[in-house]
Amino acid sequence: MFPQVRMRRLRQGKLQNLVRETTITADDLICPVFVDENIETPQEVPSMPGTYKLPVDYAADEAKEISDLGIPSIMIFGVPARKDESGSSAWGNNEVVQRAVRNIRNDISSRDMAIITDVCLCEYTTHGHCGVVDYDKEEILNDPTLPLLGKTAVSHAEAGADMVAPSGMMDGMVESIRSELDNNNFENIPIMSYAAKYFSAFYGPFRDAAESGYSFGDRSSYQMNPSNSNEAIREVELDIDEGADIVMVKPALPYLDILYRIKDELEMPTAAYNVSGEYAMIKAAAQNGWMDENKIIYESITSIKRAGADMILTYFAKDMAKLLK
Ligand code: PBG
Q1: Quick one: which residues bind Mg(2+) (predicted)?
Q2: Please, which residues have CB within 8 angstroms of residue 285's CB and are 6 or more apart in sequence?
Q3: Which of 55, 61, 166, 174 could join 242 via S-S bond, C-beta 3.0 to 4.6 A?
Q4: Is 31 annotated as a binding residue?
Q5: What is the ipTM of this complex?
Q6: Does the annotation place 67 within a ligand binding site?
Q7: How many angstroms does the Cα of residue 164 sit away from the middle of ligand 1?
Q8: Which domains does the chain have, with CATH numbers?
């Protein structure tokens, strides 16, 4: 009798859920939120249909809506009213992110929301790079950037952030943030490091949203070359040694091999960032009627989890949470 093994036996409707290997819940999702000091009403990001930048005082309502969908955490990105060469609006105590975090913290209805803040300089600097710049050499300087990231992280924690997420790919950023937090009695604030962040064209639409395009050069001297995989392991190992509590791979879908290796080899709590370009492609295809948006969302998020992500940052977080209800 052939075939003896019939894989289709377990694919019968009633039994499928018993043998499902990957399950997503809203607990796995982190919802990005853009707050912008320059606007008075929500503004849709042109290259990210369905994603809005919000005035600072909308943050609490947004957090509540996200929380009501069962999503336990948000990641805050700020667009400041003022930019300068060093990015000082990143760390002042009354700047865009700090204000948004307080806005949420002061609102009792979103008390259970875990607030994560993106720690980087690119949205706050006139040149748009993630570090201090030497204009003569057109170089992004590593070590002078580190104390600024430390200060920024502390200011976020002071405002009430539950976790900080450095995304600038500077060497030593986790260690300097860890020691600054510790020196300021924030030894219990964890660090989610964008540890394996690639130099990716998939960030294009985000730069629309966060107004973080750069004035010269590109980010290839600090973000990783998409050709490399072993290097991601080293990056993540270093961040673990420096004190990272959660490590992130970014982007997600084109880098599932990296995600798989990192989860498999390093066994850390691992996040994946389903970035703006991944979102924009799906939205564009769906708007043209070329793909079924909800099915693509479900399949994409499932694939990212299956590859090894414990948590997924995605602009589809709210849509996904609704699909799961
Ligand atoms: C800032 C930052 C970027 C993203 C998250 N944090 C942009 C970049 O590095 O250019 C990208 C997110 C996305 O594309 O969704 N350092």
Answers
A1: 235
A2: 291, 296
A3: 174
A4: no
A5: 0.95
A6: no
A7: 15
A8: 23-324 (3.20.20.70)
